[in-house]
Batch of 2 targets.
Target 1
Amino acid sequence: MVPLFIDGEFRQSASAERIAVTNPATDEVLCHAPCATADEMEEAIASARAAFKTWKEVALPERARLMMRYQALLKEHHDELAEILAKETGKTFEDAKGDVWRGIEVVEQAANVPSLMMGETAENVARAIDTYSFIQPLGVCAGITPFNFPAMIPLWMFPMAIACGNTFILKPSEQDPMTPTRLAELFVEAGAPKGVLQVIHGGKQQVDTLLTHPDIKAVSFVGSVAVGQHVYRTGTDHMKRVQAFAGAKNHMVIMPDANKQQVINNLVGASVGAAGQRCMAISVAVFVGEAKDWIPELKEAMASVRPGPTSDPAAAYGPQISARAKSRILSLIEMGKREGAHCLLDGSQCEVEGYPNGHWVGPTLFSGVTPEMTIYKEEIFGPVLSCVEVDNLDEAISLINASPFGNGTSIFTASGAAARKYQHEIEVGQVGINIPIPVPLPFFSFTGWKGSFYGDQHAYGKQAVRFYTETKTITARWFDADIPAGGVNTSIHLR
């Protein structure tokens, strides 16, 4: 049984309701995640509320040093974390290591919190009156994270929130809770005070408790569109600050002047990498003009990659997270065929020797896809790539801007003018130029648009600091007549 982490201790839940955690490559049960009871939820929130009273007073440099110790421990245990992550997600070991490393980068940014929380000043805004601002924490914050990045996405959230002076309750995905639990253990080892971080497990009931409890001030979420909308509506209805990262349908535009081999190599990796289970995956390739002639070579390249277990160094990616996820993908592939798309490469019957119970889906490629088709409109979240053909760049931009999603997009071209036009006119939050998956480093923010994000301030970077804090503005006036005779005591006492 995966433990809860409440009030500074790891403990077994009193709940009789449990969720099986399985290895996606074998379907073997690894452990069980408990659904925290109402009393356990209340205890976790109360502990976080009590800890906030003292944690918010801890000096900024001390909070930063906690994050420096934590990132050092994460680096020391990098491969160990990747092994745990690979086992419960099915990711290849290299992919799992990348998941951990991208989280470490955010923790490193959290260690810069003193400069990120600097306010503003203006002298003499009126005669002998000065105005200045402070940035202060909110209180108890919560995070609800998905299965596909069980290290990176929790590390998007709680280090930044806690570095800003808040306390935090993490509800990780019930499908892979072992990695977040190990993250919490290392946070304790780094010196995190009691109650600053809580980790609870469960499903919708536990999520709704976080969304409705009056002591939770802000909620961060990453997951599907339907759940993201529920989180945003419910949280804001209960007067909380919410950032909800939801679904995506990411397009890559291929201009005929692009480097063909770079296009093919990047399309393969960006579409089937991580088994397509990432919100920044390229799921639609938009071929402009003669670039469509490269589709047969793309098919050949995709056919050469194959999924496999973590132990197989030649595997390009792992299994889908669950039998349910695989079944959904297969149904969408079949729907694509029925709606008239040309299935050039079909991974529906994929098998991996020695792993008959794994949730495998092979690389799948469609051409002749139109915007009316379900495989174009739905986020498939699997190793499936749809090819769309247009005559010019204007058509490509119009096509993408008509999409309800706006997480990421990219263009491959040798033309600076085409790239400049694209980055300026496209209505998507994150744009890559000759880069397929333009996830920004943590000193920027992850900036999805439209139906891919509900909220105002995004994850990590400066926007995360704004999300997890409030600004207090002071306007002060002092009178010369009040200066004491004989001077001022200028001694400084440091502790």
Note: Residues 38-55 form the longest helix (18 residues).
Target 2
Amino acid sequence: MLGEGNTPLVKSRRIGKALGLENLYFKLENLNPTGSYKDRFAAVLVSEMVAAGQKFCIATSSGNTGAALSAYCAAAGITCVIFVVDGAPSSKIRQMQLYGAHIRLVKGFGLDPLVTAKVFGILEKYCAANKLPLPVSAYRYCPSAMRGVETLALELKDSTIANIDHIFAPAGGGGLTLAVTKGVISSGANSKVHCVQPRGNDTITSPLRDHASMARAVAASTTRISGLQVPSVLDGNQVIENCRALGGNGYVVSDESVFSWQKRLATQEGIFCEPAGAVALAGLEDALLRNEVSPRNETVVCLITGSGFKDMENVHQNFQLTEPQTIEETKISREIEVLNQH
């Protein structure tokens, strides 16, 4: 609808070499129309609504789903109402508002499992009574729309890379990781799909690594990684099943590691992603430390899921960037000489 999908797959210029990896690639989902992979989901969901003649969309979001739905609903002439999780970045909220969506923040939503369950209960009841979808980017709620996300894996299969050995995907509720596994399985590709989560929202990764069959909810999500604060299980059980079937594993990473890789992606690769977009790379680092990826002869893809412009608050808070220096025009030549020596 808006040109979603067919995002670039680019080879690492510096990080791969620093990690000893000869073949590291980044799938740049941050270059979708609204800045995240959620556009693949929204394109299908809104197309289904248009086909059904529905003119009112009610949804929940931590940011990216809401931005995607807001944009696609605007294009389709559908009224969009988003109930946003507690603590969602203001950049994402402003993006939704600019598309014309009606935004309501819900205290404790997305952080407290009890509050989250109550919110979903209320919205599920309303949507069922009015024969509307509840657009949550999870197979539990929207399995047909999530097939749009599966196209990501199909694009990897159809890329010029002969064989991708490992795909690292970030996870909150697990929808993206599950979509990638489904796409890999349906395409007949021979790729291991690994699930990576921040330590403060470890619902899937440790059970996957510990050979458990079921994901587990956490009492409260404590990670600062926006978009991955999903304390409930959602698609976690099937993520474990599919990742294990493909030979994948689970990786738990610290918020600090994620922020570090976010900055390195910007300074060493020219890729400006939001923190969630760096989670896969943090997981790859852990895999290399565990000797679970062979750096010399295996090809790895890390999913870069969202744009850094989505969360400028994080940039201000975590990287202590200084104000640019103001100089007189007479000093420009001298500044060039000085800076050229660095």
Note: The CA atoms of residues 183 and 276 lie 21 Å apart.
